[in-house]
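Predict structure. Chain length: 166.
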Amino acid sequence: MADIASGAGVSRQTLYNEFGNRNEFGFAFVIHEAERFMDGVEKSVREHFDDPRAAILAALEYFLSSAGDDPLIKILLSDDGTGGMLPFVTTQGLPIVQWAASRLTSVIEEGWPEAPEEDVKVLTESLVRLAISYVTTPGQAAEHAARNVAELFGPFVDKALGTAIE
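Prediction complete.
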């Protein structure tokens, strides 16, 4: 907190007055940074309202590629988990998952209002959890990982969003 306060040109007490504690600051920072990613994810979904499978693929490709190239994410991933921000998206990540899933739920409900609410919630939470997992433990190229996840979810997307071909 001292380094952050110094970098921001404020006192530590000012940070504590504003955020309460280190964890609350960390959560606020992660949400602030995640806003950029979610804006792009939502745009990707909206651009494919005519094709739910393509929407999921585009959103995943955008998120995984953007996160993989982001310098702040690279710093986050270099943390050993003992004092940095990594726990806010892993072991203490439930608030982030809930926040991101809620945003994704809203855009999916906008595009496919006929989709059952429970199916949309299952889909969005699962997608968010998988996307975070792929970012925090990278392996495959973003495009390949996105295709695999989109293919895996394809039948569920067809069922949930009413696009299955009879």
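Summary: The domain at 22-160 is CATH 1.10.357.10 (Tetracycline Repressor; domain 2).
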